[in-house]
Design brief:
With 261 residues, the chain is of the alpha/beta class. Helix content is 44%, strand content 15%. The chain has a domain of 182 residues: Alpha/Beta hydrolase fold, catalytic domain (Rossmann fold). Strands 1-3-2-4-5-6-7 form a seven-stranded mixed beta sheet, sandwiched between helices.
Length: 261
């Protein structure tokens, strides 16, 4: 198997335990820029393009978030990182949970933003596989180009219209194979709520109040399962809370890093 080469980005220099950021679907590391700009000075901030997204290739990686977690872990270890506070949004949250399960000694703290620990329902799984088949058969991203309307909430529709072309451009720049691969990988993921119950480090759960894809109930479920968790509900934000309300999300992430280190 050819291991993919992952692109990583030092978004801010610093010292101590680094902060690692994992993006959502179907985006890349660029979605974190506004949030990182609001973080206080302190740790290095490293963003990763997940396999098949941004400037990361897929190699022959199976459609598996377990395999993704292993590749992210290996990449960071090869760069000299012994441990990190890992924060993921949506798909990135699924990968962060897989890292906490498979590499618990590496993950000092866990940030779960607009994501969930449960597996897909049968209907959701079927919908993901349908999208994967559609993009591969058409060799276009048409099946996901309507996603900005689902990722951004009603407040953004009224007050942050400039976000729509930005998110549209992020999605449009992804690859057909990467999008199809990610949908299959997410469809196959297991329930990882037990990972939260056994995880010994601090957890920060963040959810946009307007998030309809992974709503407050999903966030509360994760916060209740973890032994040391905070829950931040972000007003006037939906599934991309880190993009829509970066100041509030940055505060929650900075607090997580402080608790973890």
């Amino acid at each position: 198997m050819t291991t993919p080469t992952l692109a990583t980005y030092l978004l801010r220099d610093g010292a101590g335990v680094p902060l690692v950021l994992l993006h959502g679907f179907p985006l890349d590391h660029r979605m974190w820029a506004a949030m990182v700009a609001e973080l206080p000075q302190g740790p290095r901030v490293i963003a990763v393009d997940l396999p098949g997204h941004g400037h990361s290739d897929l190699g022959q990686l199976p459609a598996s978030l377990d395999a993704t977690a292993d590749v992210v872990h290996t990449t960071l270890r090869e760069q000299g990182e012994g441990n990190a506070v890992v924060v993921g949004l949506s798909m990135g949250g699924y990968v962060a949970l897989a890292m906490a399960e498979r590499h618990p000694g590496f993950v000092r703290g866990l940030g779960l933003v607009d994501t969930k620990s449960t597996a897909d329902t049968d209907d959701a799984r079927a919908a993901r596989l349908k999208v994967a088949a559609a993009v591969m058969s058409s060799q276009t991203l048409d099946a996901v180009m309507g996603m900005p309307a689902k990722l951004l909430g009603p407040t953004s529709e009224l007050e942050r219209r400039s976000l729509y072309p930005t998110v549209y451009a992020w999605i449009h720049s992804q690859s057909v194979t990467g999008v199809a691969w990610a949908q299959r990988a997410m469809a196959a993921r297991p329930d990882r709520t037990d990972v939260l119950r056994s995880f010994s480090g601090p957890v920060a759960v963040v959810v946009g109040q307007e998030d309809q894809l992974t709503p407050l109930d999903d966030a509360q479920h994760m916060a209740d399962a973890a032994t040391d968790a905070t829950l931040t509900v972000v007003p006037d934000a939906a599934h991309l809370s880190a993009v829509e309300e970066p100041v509030i999300v940055a505060k929650a992430v900075a607090d997580l890093h402080r608790r973890a280190t």
